[in-house]
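Recap quiz, item 2
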Amino acid sequence: MSKERKIRVLVAKPGLDGHDRGAKVVARALRDAGMEVVYTGLHQTPEQVVEAAIQEDVDVLGLSILSGAHMTLFPRVKELLEENNAGDILLIGGGIIPEEDMEELKEKGYAQALFTPGIPTDEIVEWIRNAMESKTSSA
Amino acid sequence: MNIVEGLIKGDRRALARAISLVENEDSSKNEILKGVYTHTGKAYIIGFTGSPGSGKSSLVDKLVSVIRREGLTVGIVAIDPTSPFTGGAILGDRIRMQEHTEDKDVFIRSMGTRGSLGGLSRATKDAVQLLDAFGKDIVIIETVGVGQSEVDVVKNADTTVVVLTPASGDSVQTIKAGIMEIANIFVVNKSDLPNADRTRTEINLMLDLDNKKKEWRPPIISTISLTSEGIEELWEELKKHRQFLEEGDRLAAIRRERVKREIVDYMEHIIKSRLWEKISGTTLFEKTIEKISQRDLDPISGAEKVLERVNLDNHEFPE
Ligand SMILES: Nc1nc2c(ncn2[C@@H]2O[C@H](COP(=O)(O)OP(=O)(O)O)[C@@H](O)[C@H]2O)c(=O)[nH]1
Ligand SMILES: [Mg+2]
């Protein structure tokens, strides 16, 4: 008898800003949707985030960035994931990110999905579920 | 690459993946566990249990710093409760274990308690074996001390540390009896708070009543994990307990007992699934259920009758 496979998500807050309210709201929403959410707290370096994602064997890595450093943090995290042979971990994020930066990050593959603050958390849950389904069916 | 080979060679991604596969009861689980077993048995396993918020994660974080100074490598399995309503969990032990995230010789894995009774203990034991096979010198299990399943979890440890605090509602009487009995070491954490002395006295009193004939009287260590006070002493006591167990074959006996539990567990599991394969959906089984429901037969006789007809070694199905 095989158990239902649980989706594991790491929610991280890299960078210097000190607000994690949004990250916590998302973490709780994902938990309420039946996912296992590893929450790592504030002020992570990209190296710490990626190492935690690897050890925890998460399916999805979510970055919450309010500091404005998204254009450096997303590419750096993506690069480290790939260096560590973990490029298959879905990289998503949220925070205060201007529209054109979002487009650029997604276009260049530095993030698979980005969510603006105030977006219904259901949409994030939906996105993860769909992405996981297409991932497992293509595997 | 073969996942077991990768793990043995020290590939962290392979280790992480192996823990998931085993925890998810994937079809590859048995192959993985069989493959690593000869590489296990070297790690020393320490369990930490206590109320939520008593400071277990903070304590483990500081202890790991002391252990790392001796050059020993560390694996941690940190367990947090799964919501029984949604099946989801927020695993937050890493928040207090930041210091070691970039240390490649410390591997931290968070686990939810998930569903089944006994399942948690099995999943923890399996994760510990994988960390052991990976080559970690010390493996630490952190689990909330609330009920029977947690007591079962720490049965996988060689040395068990019970963490208490002077905070109200955490007095010795309120701690479950089963938890007090498994302690090899007591920690009174948050000793910066008032009434720490009273907590120590209460534990001592309880030990006087309970443990008089025991060869090992659990020491009580006061700690403040915020400032690392008492952490060196905790490590010294852990080493002392390890030495105590290693003298006179006590550790070997404990581990033999654990192996016995493990093999019985597996045998029961195998027999159960074979039995189920044989009887589910058969007319014999369905008719017996019917008879019992009609009060024509009692369940004990029913079970005996079904088993008489089932030969678990024989691959033919009963009628
Ligand atoms: N005053 C005080 N607070 C502590 C001490 N150790 C931990 N804490 C705090 O207690 C809370 C819970 O700690 P945590 O390690 O997460 O506890 P756990 O749930 O048992 O793992 C955190 O806010 C810690 O900062 C201590 O020695 N003294
Ligand atoms: Mg904890």
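Residues B 56-57, 93, 142 surround magnesium ion (ligand 2) (CB under 6 Å).
The two ends of chain A are 21 Å apart (CA to CA).
End of item.
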